[in-house]
Amino acid sequence: MSMKLYERCSRTFRDNPTLSRFLVVFAVSGGGLVAYSEANVQSAAKIDALPEAGNEKKRVVVLGTGWAGISFLKNLKNPSYDVQVISPRNYFAFTPLLPSVTVGTVEARSVVEPIRNIVKKKNVNVNYWEAECYRIDAKSKKVYCRASQDDKEEFVVDYDYLVVAMGARVNTFNTPGVEENCHYLKEVEDAQKIRRTVIDCFEKACLPNMSEEERKRALQFVVVGGGPTGVEFAAELHDFVSEDLVKLYPSVKDLVKITLLEATDHILNMFDKRITIFAEEKFHRDGIDLRTGEMVTKVTDKEISTKVIKTGETSTIPYGMAVWSTGIATRPVVMDFMKQIGQANRRVLATDEWLRVEGTNSIYALGDCATINQRKVMEDISAIFQKADKDNSGTLTVKEFQEALDDICDRYPQMQLYLNSKQMSSLVDILKESKGDVAKESVELNVEEFKSALSQVDSQMKNLPATAQVAAQQGSYLADCFNRLEECTKNPEGPLRFRESGRHRFRPFRYKHLGQFAPLGGEQTAAQLPGDWVSIGHSSQWLWYSVYASKQVSWRTRSLVVSDWMRRFIFGRDSSQI
Its principal location (predicted)? Predict the structure, then answer.
């Protein structure tokens, strides 16, 4: 009877997916509805040629299945493309939850969604091949790939448009011994290895033939890097030890030590100072050994050598497990591609404001593998002046300048940032600062006065952070451009081309920051949201639960993640080595 009831319920949920969605939202929000949505983001000679016009479908090759690549695929709706996805990873991983995977708060399969599940219902023709791209030939518009299976078969793929979304690798800063002895935390496999190693360390410390010194070393956990990933992992590990493992390994519970190393003076430098101070104080209260201003110089299989940056004092730390989380570096295949297109001297692939790789016509780069090379206002200041000077008088009135300001702000985002930073509401405020009282529209500026008025604007230029939020917005933006390519080619909607005639086809990419979280353990999270709003504590933890559940890519993973959280609350974390 119970089996028939189970089968009947299962069939009902399969046939009516909205019921499962309601159940998950109800569980996440404690019976209420939690709403969270991302705002819609408005969104020299070239080495390659633009695709020829025609009715045949254009082939779009997407390299990578991370945040940028999946966001692009999910938002691409124009059926006039044949899309080929190439990646050695046949799933998308919700990387912000990887620290939770390392200790069993969330299971690995709960945070991954197969690529084929994501694209199977689209009206765009999308195919996936499990392979790794090892070379990009921009001139002949080909990518060279190697299959991920044992035979490592190689093949070549032609493209009309190429989307590079390969992410980045861990940056070891050429520190000796890191690759051989440290764990990373970028992939699901990394999190699974860390989980097994943590349990290994505890099991090893309980063996009868271990000396006291060997037990202490086995239970010394070192985290290198005080950014969001390193801090969250240290907090998760502390909770795992204090809430679960001390009950299972009571004989060695007093030997456990967690050390967090950070080369700068504070952890979480990208967050508000209030969050940084709270996090440091909480770690001290929790007994986490926080060592700032200290860099790693060498790693062996048993100890880590460090140096205090200010004093030069050196020391060693014995360890049982070390996790390296200090930043990212460019992948070798992308570095080779950069040499082809004249970007060999750069540390990361450069694109323009429309995410097109500089020096190419048909290659786009998103996410951690690229950065936007924002053009400076002062580089185009003469062209801007000429375009705004509609009567060719050699001077600009305030009215002429005001008419051009929208296009300037659209083309150069640092202009709006400058206005905001100076608490200026209009162009008149800028001119007052440089020339004095210009309230009347009859006041005119020559080119030198115009340069003086905008001379400080470029000081507001900032590189975007390498985060999932940036990558997802870039993927959505580029998909929107591909969806409306034909429409915007006929009717351009972008800003004026100050050095050429006409307008750009699209508005440049604009990143909209929606806030960031820093889970600190003990069911406490720090949240920094737009508008300089900071919240720290248990209420922010529930906001974190709600947001991270809502941002899952499917209702399947959303259900699994929520059920994992509930299981942990009821039964604790699992300590088996599976």
Answer: mitochondrion
d(CA 250, CA 231): 26
Rounded to whole angstroms, how far apart are CA atoms 46 and 56? Answer: 24
Torsion, Cα 271 272 276 277, to 10 degrees, reads 180
How far is the C-alpha of 446 from the C-alpha of 450, rounded, in Å? 6
What CA–CA distance (Å, rounded) separates 234 from 259? 8
Q: What is the full DSSP assignment across 267-328? A: S-TTS-HHHHHHHHHHHHHHT-EEEESEEEEEE-SSEEEEEETTT--EEEEE-SEEEE---E
User: According to the CATH classification, is domain 377-460 in 1.10.238?
Assistant: yes
DSSP 227-254: SHHHHHHHHHHHHHIIIIIHHH-GGGGG
User: Same CATH topology for 56-168+330-374+463-512 and 377-460?
Assistant: no
Are 445 and 530 in contact by the 8 Å Cβ rule? The answer is: no
Q: What percentage of the chain has pLDDT greater than the value 90?
A: 73
- Per residue in 224-241, is it b (16+ CB within 10 Å) or e — as a string? bbbbbbbbbbbbbbbbbb
Q: Using CA of residue 573, residue 30, residue 538, residue 556, what is the dihedral sign? A: positive
Q: Terminal CA-to-CA distance of the chain, rounded, Å? A: 34
The pLDDT of residue 222: 98
Domain boundaries, the chain: 56-168+330-374+463-512, 183-329+515-571, 377-460
Q: Is the pLDDT of residue 439 over 60?
A: no
pLDDT at residue 476, rounded to an integer: 98
**Nearest-10 Cα torsion for 411, 472, 417, 427:** 40
Q: Classify residue 378 by burial, with Cβ atoms within 10 Å: 0-12, 13-18, 19+.
A: middle
Residue 421: in which H helix or E strand, if any?
A: helix 413-421
Task: Report whether pLDDT(39) > 80.
Answer: no
- For the domain bounded by 56-168+330-374+463-512, which CATH number is listed? 3.50.50.100
Residue 394's Cα: distance from chain center in Å? Answer: 46
| 241/245 Cα distance (integer angstroms) | 5
Q: Which of 246, 283, 239, 285 is nearest to 261 (CA)?
A: 283
What letter represents residue 234's amino acid?
Answer: A
493 vs 313, 358, 400, CA distance in Å? 59, 21, 21
* pLDDT in the model for residue 11: 55
Who's near 557: CB < 8 A, 6+ residues apart?
94, 110, 111, 112, 113
The kind and range of the H/E element at 430 are helix 427-435
CA–CA separation, 512 and 530 (whole Å): 9
Question: Which pair of tokens denotes residue 31?
Answer: 């019976």
Question: Measuring CA to CA, which residue among 480, 447, 460, 364 is closest to residue 412?
Answer: 460
Mean pLDDT, the chain, whole residue set: 89
Adjacent-strand bridge partners of 298: 305
What's the CATH architecture for 183-329+515-571?
Answer: 3-Layer(bba) Sandwich (3.50)
